[in-house]
Amino acid sequence: MKAEIVSIGSELLMGELIDTNAPYLAAMLPNLGIHLQRVSQVNDDVELLSQVLREGWQRSDLILTTGGLGPTDDDITREAIAHLLEEPLFIDTNAAHINDSTYSNFAETTH
């Protein structure tokens, strides 16, 4: 199986953060019998990320993404994947309820 890792975030390209996720994942893949072909870093841009994912999809069996999934406006991974698949985003209310319950309990136990 061939794989690629795509690290997402302008802060990586600007040198504001060091990507520690890609090296960690890269070290794990051989143990799973997965051949890593490429690691790339992409700016917070929906069109560019969609293009990188589309190209990776043509080359590889597996694409691992890291970053770009937080709550801020520059976290565009969901939108880029929806754009690539030509599918709308939607909120699963059951999953949202579980998520809210889990994190509210977590917040209570950490204070």
UniProtKB/TrEMBL annotation:
Matching InterPro entries: CinA, MoaB/Mog-like_dom_sf, MoaB/Mog_dom
Gene3D superfamilies from the UniProt entry: MoaB/Mog-like domain
Name listed for the protein in its UniProt record: MoaB/Mog domain-containing protein
Domain MoaB/Mog: 4-110
